[in-house]
Structure formats: C-alpha cells, structure tokens
Amino acid sequence: MGRWGGSAALLVAAGVMLGSDPGVGSVLGALVMIVLAFLLSPLLFPSSPGDAAGRKRGREERLPVVYWRPGCHHCLKLRLGLLLTGRRVVWVDISSDPDALARVRSVNGGDATVPTVFSRGTVRTAPTVRWVREQLDAR
After folding, report:
1. This prediction's pTM
2. 82, 88, 94, 127 — which has fewest CB within 10 A?
3. Over the range 92-130, which residues count as b (16 or more CB within 10 Å of their CB) and which as e?
4. What tens digit of pLDDT does each residue of 43-74 get?
5. Residues 29, 86, 105, 52: is their CA dihedral positive or negative?
C-alpha cells in the first residue's frame, strides 16, 4: 500500500463509520495525506548538507547535528518538538550520504539507528527533545 496508504485507508474507514458518508472519509483521508506530505517535506526537513558539511556547520555555529532518515517517526517527533520551540539544529539524512550512514553505524554498534545526535563532544541515540534543547541552550 505504500508509506501512507494503510493510514489513509484506516482514516477513510473511520470517516465512513463516524459520518456514515464516504465523502467524509475521503476528505479526512485527503487531509491526513496533506498533513503527512508537509511533515515529511523539505519544509520541515531541509535538504541535507551531507556529513562533512553538516559537521562543519555544526562546529562553526555550535549546533547539534541530527542524523535522520525519511519515514522515521522518532525523527519526526524530534523535529516537531524542536519546531514548536523555534530551535535550530543541523539535519543530515543518512539515506542520501554513505559517510553519514557510516558515522551513525560507528556509534551504534553497526546499527543505523536514528535519530542520532552529536553535540558538544557527546552523542545520543534517540535523545529526548529536552536533551537537544539543553544542548542548544548551552551554546
């Protein structure tokens, strides 16, 4: 069904049950698809600078570097948590850069677990939004 097909189908079914009108389910499904497209778009996750450029920017601007991949709900949760507070970090997509993937694997026992965040000489895998905010506050 694809990345979002199952979720949309469930929402259409829920809309049909709630409104007894297939049109309501279709509208709900369309709205959810629009929201998901926005949440996973470059508007929230700007294009990745790549590992080397991301590390350099993180050092120069004293920002945490967050390694992520599209479709990761933990990455999305972190991004939304930081978005609501207006915080900035450097986002590096491991699916588009083999060096970024290798860096993440090097600190996670060979696993490509994301989000993995490097900040001020520390690395955290799947950190809380609070921890990342603390790293930003300490700049």
Report:
1. 0.71
2. 88
3. bbbeebeebbebbeeebeeeebbbbbbbeeebbbebebe
4. 666 678 999 999 999 999 999 999 999 889 99
5. positive
Q: Is 132 exposed, middle or buried (0-12, 13-18, 19+ CB in 10 A)?
A: buried
| Strongest mean pLDDT among 41-55, 72-86, 90-104 | 90-104
SS (H, E, C) the chain: CCCCHHHHHHHHHHHHHHHCCHHHHHHHHHHHHHHHHHHCCCCCCCCCCCHHHHHHHHHHHCCCEEEECCCCHHHHHHHHHHHCCCCCCEEEECCCCHHHHHHHHHHCCCCCCCCEEEECCEEEECCCHHHHHHHHHCC
Residue 43 CA to residue 30 CA, distance in Å, equals 19
